[in-house]
Design a protein that fits this description.
Layout: H1 18-24, H2 44-59, E1 63-66, E2 72-76, E3 86-92, H3 105-121, E4 129-134, H4 147-153, H5 158-162, H6 172-178, H7 190-195, E5 196-204, H8 209-213, E6 217-223, E7 225-234, E8 238-239, H9 251-267, E9 273-282, E10 288-289, E11 292-301, H10 304-324, E12 328-337, E13 340-341, H11 344-353, E14 359-362, H12 367-371, E15 377-382, H13 398-416
Bound molecules: glyoxylic acid and manganese (II) ion (MN) (2 copies).
Length: 417
């Protein structure tokens, strides 16, 4: 594919391709147990990826800054350094446990290649351009997805964020401090928000939309509303051999019945999705009836009122099931993201730059969705031939990855005009 309408890019980055960049990080955070990648925020793997990103943007001559919420910003400034009405692109480098290679890193690597392409075409940008890496997009460590963008936009109370705990019991405040942030100063960043004129996130498609349309690239229209809830089922811990079946108050049995009820509730509601992907018995022994089981519920629907009704129904059914099993259940909301419709003006501008691209919605959450109520935001999806995501099976073919980066560069250049 030809690239470049102007001067040649600097030799250090002239050969960069999305595939080549992703191959540089292919060995980071591999998970021998689960398969794929496990790169929770501020783990060794995610920190290594952050260092890699900083090296990459430094060699491209961008100015690197880490904001007070832990997002990394790499700026290609206009002469004079005014950052108002900036264009921002980027994604995340953290992953779900056992995730794929593309969810997050594809958007970051594509942004780097898009910068190379634009630098080859333009001596200086006509709008400032930043590549951003948001922390804890998946919420895999502290439970709240898109924690970095939520903090920046004020969508989460900083006190709540400071007190979030990871599975080892460490608070976000402690982990943030250990990684160079001052947790007293996390929270809404009006200055940075005010500088963003448009945010465009490129992401691997996480379903089959583009496969079915036989197209490599799509423009996003909307994100399903979604949320996370924690259910704690309290029973009575006891001995697996000496406790008669009739005498048990087994929270694992309650939780299992609840999981089936959750599946059935979502099946009976058009367009609803409900998932239990994480369940934790306490204390967790083969010959021990658990005393408590915590599990996490993810519910999504295009209509936020329906999401609320689905969760209310699940809660009511869980209470009945718990009572029948001699247990108690508590349900607590951990995060909620309303349905997002991306900025129609920006979507039209992208459609002008990318006239072939179909427009698709998505059921997956993104930092772009958190930013959308605050700044004009758009997303570009790249075909995933497996149609599978949050799994090692997630995939992007090399040609589509390079087309994605060129598309992103075209879209950004279109927005500079
Ligand atoms: C993130 O990818 C989510 O949709 O949960
Ligand atoms: Mn994801
Ligand atoms: Mn993602």
């Amino acid at each position: 594919m030809t690239r470049g309408m102007g001067t040649t890019p600097p030799p250090s980055v002239s050969a960069a391709t999305v595939t080549g960049l992703l191959s540089e990080i292919a060995g980071t955070g591999t998970d021998a147990l689960r398969g794929g990648y496990t790169r929770p925020v501020y783990s060794t793997a995610e920190l290594d990826l952050r260092h890699w990103f900083i090296e990459q943007v430094t060699k491209r001559g961008l100015t690197v800054e880490t904001d007070r919420n832990g997002a990394i910003w790499a700026w290609w400034d206009v002469p004079g350094g005014d950052r108002s009405n900036s264009l921002v692109t980027g994604s995340h480098l953290d992953s779900v446990p056992g995730g794929g290679a593309f969810d997050g890193p594809l958007g970051v690597a594509s942004a780097l290649v898009a910068v190379d392409i634009l630098k080859a075409r333009l001596a200086t940008p006509t709008r400032p351009l930043a590549v951003v890496v948001f922390p804890e997009e998946e919420g895999s460590r502290f439970g709240v997805a898109c924690l970095g963008s939520r903090l920046m936009t004020g969508a989460i109370d900083p006190d709540k964020a400071r007190n979030l705990r990871d599975p080892d019991g460490s608070t976000f405040a402690d982990v943030a401090r250990a990684n160079g942030l001052d947790p007293r100063f996390i929270g809404r960043d009006d200055k940075l928000l005010g500088q963003i004129g448009a945010f465009v996130e490129l992401h691997v498609e996480q379903g089959r939309g583009l496969i079915d349309l036989n197209q490599p690239i799509a423009i996003a229209s909307s994100i399903l509303g979604h949320g996370r809830w924690r259910l704690s089922v309290q029973g009575q811990g006891n001995h697996a051999g000496t406790t008669l079946m009739a005498d048990r108050h087994d929270p694992m049995v309650s939780a299992s019945r609840m999981v089936v009820a959750i599946r059935d509730t979502a099946r009976n509601q058009a367009h609803a999705r409900a998932t239990v992907g994480r369940l934790q018995p306490v204390p967790g022994g083969t010959n021990v009836i658990a005393s408590r089981v915590d599990f996490w519920l993810d519910v999504r629907h295009p209509d936020d009122a329906v999401t609320a009704a689905v969760v209310e129904s699940i809660h009511a059914q869980a209470q009945v099931i718990a009572a029948e099993e001699g247990c108690r259940v508590e349900l607590r909301e951990e995060s909620l993201s309303p349905t997002v419709h991306f900025d129609p003006g920006l979507q039209k501008e992208l459609q002008r730059a990318l006239p072939q691209a179909p427009v698709l919605d998505t059921g997956a959450g993104h930092d772009a969705g958190v930013l959308a109520p605050f700044v004009p935001t758009a997303m570009v999806f790249v075909r995933n031939p497996s149609g599978v995501s949050h799994s090692p099976e997630e995939h992007v073919v090399d040609d589509d990855a390079e087309t994605g980066a060129e598309t992103l560069a075209d879209a950004l250049q279109g927005l500079m005009a």
